[in-house]
Amino acid sequence: MITIYGQTYAFDDPVVLAALGAAVLVLLLFALLIVTLRAAARSARMTEPLSYHLSQLGNRVQTLSDGQERLAGGLTHVSEAQVASQTRVLQLMEQRLADVTRGMSESLQGSATRTARSLGELQQRLETIDKAQANIEKLSGNVLGLQDILSNKQTRGAFGEIQLNDIVRKAMPPDAFTMQATLSNGRRADCLIHLPNPPGPIVIDSKFPLEAYEMLRRAENQSQQIEAQRHLRIAVRSHIKAISERYILEGETADGALMFLPSEAVYAELHANFPELVREGFDARVWIVSPTTCMATLNTMRAVLKDARMREQAGAIRATLRLLHRDVELVVERVDKLATHFHQARGDLDGITTAADRAGKRAAKLDNFDFEVLAPDAEEPRVVPIAKS
User: Fold this and answer.
1) How far is the C-alpha of 294 from the C-alpha of 73, rounded, in Å?
2) List of residues 6+ apart from 287 with CB closer than 8 A
3) What is the distance, to the nearest Å, from the Cα of residue 181 to the centroid of all Cα atoms in its chain?
4) Handedness of CA 135, 136, 137, 140 (dihedral sign)
């Protein structure tokens, strides 16, 4: 219970409770006010540097504003400069583009001209290729014909003889050989070279057995190759023996003969893989030659023939030299006589020159009327003057 102004109130009385609540509320407000005042004091003390900073911030904002204005002016200037630069760049680009366009146009025109010229040249080359193709086709036909010739034994022999004939005619004088010469034993030699003794006439045979070499060239395995080599050895030995027996005649031909191979490949094959056949040919005095070595051998024979003919003509040459010496002596004698005549003629010319000089002087006196009258008793000549009319 509580007594206020003589009036008693219970604690649970709403009036008391309300009063208590109001009192508590007032106390709270008073405490809040005190706290607020203290906080305001502290805030005032704290706001002094804040105000200073705000003042500084304001100044900086003003500076930034001024800088922004200057930046705006600079940006305006930069923008104007950029616009002018872009304008100049665009003008330059337009000029460059015009130059490039003009250059491309000229280049395209030149390229078109060169292309047209190249197409013309290409057309000419294609025509040349067509002609070459036609020649190749023709040559292929000739090669097939040559293969047909070489496949036939008789025509192949004729081909070898023609080739040998061409080589001999190029290397030797016409009177130094005989083609298809008949020997005393009735055998006919493809070519007989007329060399003096020694060594004497030498025979060249051009009929070589080519079948065995073709078999060797077509061999596909070792057994076929061995068989082809055996046939080649037999064929070459037989041919060497036939040449030795038919064309080496004692007292009529040289002590040896030549076996002409119309192919360098066959010659190389024999010397590379069949050296024993070459040695057997040496033993039989049959020398194997190719077109190249045959030309060299014939040139050597030509030198030997030339030397022999010079020895045969040595007597005639000496006689001719004696006659030539006599002719030179006669020429010398006649030159001496001619020199004597020249000396005489020179004396006559000198006399004629002297007489001409005297005649010229006398003619000059006549031209001047400078006459001399000589009296019989006068010691010196007296000039008679001409009377004036």
Assistant:
1) 106
2) 256, 257, 258, 259, 281, 297
3) 50
4) positive
Q: Is-above-0.70 flag for pTM?
A: no
Give the integer Cα–Cα distance in Å for 249 and 310.
27
When pLDDT is averaged across residues 6-28 and rounded to a whole number, the result is 69
The token duo for 27 is 């106390």
Burial class (CB in 10 A: 0-12, 13-18, 19+), 293: middle
Q: Cα separation of 155 and 153, whole Å?
A: 6
End-to-end CA distance of the chain, in Å? 220
Which residue do the tokens 């407000």 mark? Answer: 29
Strand ranges (E), the chain: 2-4, 7-9, 177-182, 188-193, 202-205, 257-260, 286-289
CA dist 260 and 162 (Å) reads 12
Q: What are the CA-CA distances from residue 267 to residues 234, 264, 288 (Å)?
A: 16, 5, 8
Which CATH architecture does the domain made up of 164-320 adopt? 3-Layer(aba) Sandwich (3.40)
231 burial class (0-12, 13-18, 19+ CB within 10 angstroms)?
A: middle
Handedness of CA 159, 162, 164, 170 (dihedral sign): negative
- How far from 13 is each of 1, 20, 21, 171, 222, CA to CA, in Å? 9, 11, 12, 167, 143
Domain limits of the chain?
10-110, 164-320
Three-state DSSP class for residue 374: coil
Whole-angstrom distance, CA of residue 323 vs CA of residue 310: 19
CB atoms within 10 A of CB 131: 10
Res. 144 pLDDT band, cuts 50 70 90: very low
Gap between the Cα atoms of 201 and 180, Å rounded: 14
| 378 Cα distance to chain centroid | 107
Do 262 and 164 meet the contact criterion of CB atoms below 8 Å apart? yes
For 97-108, how does the pLDDT look when each residue is reduced to its tens digit (9 = 90+)? 777 778 777 777
CA distances from 291 to 102, 170, 238 (A): 67, 12, 22
